[in-house]
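Fig. S4 source data, part A: sequence.
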Amino acid sequence: MNPVDFAFILGQIKGQTDFLALHVLGEPLLHPQLALLLEKCQQETLRVNITTNGTLLKSRMPVLFASSQVIRQINISLHCITDSKVKQCLNPASYLTEVFDFISKAISSTSILINLRLWNITDEKDSAQQHNEYILKELENFFCLPYRLKNELTPGQGIRLHPKVFLSQNRRFVWPHTAETGSNDRGFCRGLRDHVAILVDGTVVPCCFDAEGDIDLGNIYLQPLAEIVTNARASAMRQEFSRRRALEGLCRRCTYKQMFEAAGRPQPIWPPQFNQLAGQYSSESILGGDDQTIAKGGRNST
């Protein structure tokens, strides 16, 4: 997404959210004009949440620290090094050294919150679990913890490692577009209650898991966000989720909704102010593709 379009969207969502998450699917630190985008967020008094695999934290540290006043939280997906494809080109020890160096400097010189994620639990004992044990041990050493993390962690809940650093562990999430996902119409979701996602072409979708734009609610370049999130399709989705039912096919395939089953009573629905609104970059935009490439590439981000 180029800065001009980004600024237009910020103007459209102004007054309807306090936070902006720079992700749907992809690596936001790859964006060549990240500093400018963060500057525009600061001009609109929006706090930013960033989700990253952490591989670019070292090279992007100057940009992130220079914009630290606008960045609320950085989520670092430590589980990326347990992926078989990633392990072929990334040394786990070197990766963690760079992540820990970033954390040390961030907590000593900024107010940024750090959320470390190990979202790769499965029912099988595989190499990922072995890597998790290694990561947990390194965290224990780095933070000088007097206890074993594997004995303290509860899937779906976080643990504080430092006043500004948190660790969470959860089950491996399968993107609902993939063939291996099943279908289940039971469950609850916070999509369209406290967040929506905006894809690079302006398409508004219920949540950040709809990276392909399957549930096209409207386009923010063509109509106000308030109209889009209160239209018939969006309203029907919220009403059905209030009954613990998934209306859309993508939602039925999504396994993340099961995490809300024990979350209690749903929160009030729109029009109360969103707490978060997510924005997406396309891989073509991140890598410097021109307008024609972006249009051809569609909404995806990798």
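Fig. S4 source data, part B ends here. Residues 92-109 form the longest helix (18 residues).
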